[in-house]
Amino acid sequence: MRTADAVSRDIQADAEASDDALVAEFREKLLEEIDLNELSRLELSQRRARLERVMAHLVGRDGPLLSSRERASLVRRVVAETLGLGVLEPLLLDDSITEIMVNGPSTIFVERFGQVERAKARFVNNEQLLQTIDRIVSEVNRRVDESSPMVDARLPNGERVNVILPPLSLDGPVLTIRKFPKPFTMQELIDRGTLTAPVAAFLDACVKARLNVVVSGGTGSGKTTLLNAVSASIPDGERIVTIEDAAELSLQQQHVIRLESRPANVEGRGQITIRDLVRNSLRMRPDRIIVGEVRGGETMDMLSAMNTGHEGSLTTVHANSPEDAIHRLETLASMSDLELPFTAIREQVRSAVDVIVQLNRASDGTRRVMEVVMFVPADDDGNRRSHVVSRFDENRTDGTTRGSHVIGSIPRSMAARLQRNQGYLPEGIPVALGDQPVGRRLAP
Ligand SMILES: Nc1ncnc2c1ncn2[C@@H]1O[C@H](COP(=O)(O)OP(=O)(O)OP(=O)(O)O)[C@@H](O)[C@H]1O
Ligand SMILES: [Mg+2]
To answer: Is the pLDDT of residue 199 over 90?
Structure first.
């Protein structure tokens, strides 16, 4: 077996060795020669072998005089472009790349180690890019064209793909591919400085004690990654239902049911929303429900589940601070079609959420847990307070994103709850003397 690196180097070398016109000419010939219908019934590896045989024959018959190396390279390139994703293949094979962003045919960016850089690869023209896009989405029985110009899909290896076409995108078809390297474990996140060992132990205890945890952060801040790592604390044997728009979570437990929403088909029918799935999951006797990200009316269903019988559920929300997360949950919950007064919605949010973990992606690509807050039960006036369990204090004076994680404390009432449900308290974070003094009051 050759390594992905070696294959990637070959393809790159091929791109330099054989010229584009020749590749295009032989791609045409190959497409004339083969029966695409028959081909589509074969396994990928068989397809590749078949195409390579036909191509070798065609080059031998019609090709210019080429060295054996040039010939092999021409065959590989034509097959890659016919079968695979052409210029994207080496980028997909490169393990250091986590995201591929195609902004029209001649501009491709990649993200490597959290940094975005321009890639040398380019498509010949719009049409070639569209063909590649077509190949990706037809593989999952979706269609993308002027009438449905936005589509999500997944590559056979699980990479998540989003496509948006003109006229919605102004400078040509835009293709974004997110790769999923082996997800980080909690230990790996600690090693990278994303969070501290005491905070990891705290989250582990919270999950085991069935507190409801919400991970909050901006786009690409590492919410899904952290959710995945946190979910490892769910004891084996519990029945877990995961609900996502595009399945990204990979839980290690034995008893996991993965659900994925579905957009409407081209006739505008058949849509299954996250909300439909959350409602359905309640009839599936789950011990815990994990919603990849709440974005709309399903928030209300999720909160009620967290409040009634499915404690210990987990989700993420797009927000920039714990306070913002609470407000965002309130807004999202009010998008449900239930005619609830706002005070009832607020009450639902505030009694459901026990812990918020706030993530941030710094300009240098570092993902960090900026703050962990816990909510203490409402006082006599019905106010709930947030209580800082840990915070990252930024030291901006030197223009970098350095700083240090500062440990706060666990509110006394919540410590009692952890102790009661779990039998022990996590080490490394002290218990506060009372519930009130350290906390900030939530803005009404
Ligand atoms: N702690 C981390 N350290 C370094 N890289 C990370 C970390 N967490 C996540 N990443 C990387 O950042 C990218 C985005 O991560 P992730 O999908 O978890 O973010 P997200 O907040 O869920 O994004 P989205 O807003 O798209 O849902 C991934 O490539 C992931 O591997
Ligand atoms: Mg995510």
So the answer is: yes
How does strand 174-178 pair with strand 97-103? Answer: antiparallel
Q: Are residues 175 and 208 in the same domain?
A: no
- CATH number of the domain that 138 lies in? 3.30.450.370
Q: What is the pLDDT of residue 203?
A: 97
pLDDT tens per residue, range 412-428: 889 999 999 887 888 88
* Gyration radius from the chain CA atoms: 26
The answer to whether residues 295 and 389 belong to one domain is yes
Nearest CA to ligand 1 atom 10: 222
Q: Which residues pair with 382 in a beta bridge?
A: none
Contact 429, 202 (CB under 8 A): yes
What is the domain range of residue 54? 1-83
Tokens 């607020």 identify what position? Answer: 346
Q: Which of 100, 214, 224 to probe ligand 1 with, by most ligand atoms within 8 A of CB?
A: 224
2-55, pLDDT tens digit by residue? 455 555 555 555 555 557 788 888 888 888 888 766 776 777 678 788 888 898
Q: Which of 181, 209, 229 is the last residue of a domain?
A: 181
Angle at 179 between CA 174 and CA 183, to 5 degrees: 150
25 and 107 together in one domain: no
CB 386 within 8 A of CB 440: yes
Residues with CB under 6 A from ligand 1: 98, 114, 181, 189, 192, 194, 217, 219-225, 293, 367
Number of domains in the chain: 3
- Pocket test of ligand 1: the residue of 177, 190, 248, 367 to mutate, having most ligand atoms within 8 Å of its CB, is 367
Index of the ligand 1 atom closest to the CA of residue 181 = 31
Are 387 and 263 in the same domain? yes
Cα 360 to Cα 424: distance, rounded to the nearest angstrom: 30
